[in-house]
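call fold(seq) -> tokens
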Amino acid sequence: MNSVPESLQPGTMIGILGGGQLAQMLILAGHAMGFRFIVLDPNPNCPANLVGAAQITAAYDDQEALAKLAASCVVVTYEFENVNADSVSWLEERVDLPQGSELLRISQNRLREKTFLEKLAVQVSPFQKITTENDVLEAFDALGELMLKTVTGGYDGRGQTRISRTEQIPEAFSALSKAKTEIVAEQFVPFEREISVMVGRNRLGEIRCFTPVENLHKKNILTISRIPARLVPEVSEQAQTVAKKIAEGLELVGVLGVEMFVLADGELLVNEIAPRPHNSGHFTQNACVTSQFEQHLRAITNLPLGSTELYKPAVMLNILGEHLPLLLEKLKDLPPEAKLHLYGKHDCRTGRKMGHLNLTSDSLESLLEPLRKLGIWDAALLSKML
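ret:
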């Protein structure tokens, strides 16, 4: 369905493949816009279920459930990229699915993604396809220190390992081979900063970027984001130009997260793309005129894009399973600038994203001491970002 329909009216039913926290926050933003929602998710207690969405409880490749979803709504979107691309393609033939299946096929496969970005003349770290253990050794000889990654299923740092010495190759290759998917070796890049840019585009080609975000990870999971990223203006502008170029190349409809490395000389390398709202864009809920969730909905319902203006500098902290018990004990001690977002997940476990905290301030450095006193997040990481 390639035609451009009229802007969808309040009361329209929107379908979402996936019922996790991103779906939950899309729904919360959409309720304020007057939209209704139905999600397809195998978990009957998914976060989207907690905020008034109708739900079809079934696997993502259940064709009967997909047909029911298509019949129940006017437009469908997906909230994460690890849904079955064939299911999305099947849906695309039966209901308006603005993101499309091709974007999903590109973004859920690291080799296809990097090849696509190279065709757009977007800089990425050098990479090689890996089939055998000897391929890894050859890649190490050619590229030096490596990040060895599975081609699919790498959400939140899963399916990847760093190789600094040839002695690590057999164990690393054996471990990743168990995933039964292709493997790619990427040259390890000694970057100065990790940043991301959220970009939105609608069917009319209108395109807007949010302020670049600086990110810090621990054990491959995002811990803290600082906005704006500490970049010279030229690099900040270039990051947004790169994000727009990718969005246009993909003929994006919706919101896209573009993760990049900033090298010592200011060069930008794109690490990966996420074809939906992104963890590093959560700050937009409390720091921007338009949130990333509202922007995504505006794009897929053919509304004009909203302003991405940043009201105030911001910090976003992920609340993982190991953080939540102490945070709940210290709710009264949170700084007055804090805005708490909890997802209502039932199973609280280490490394699982249970919520996030947004804080805005004209002086982000002034937030360091109050956050350190809470004792919830790693003090060294806080000091590094604030």
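Residues 75 and 293 are 16 Å apart (CA to CA).
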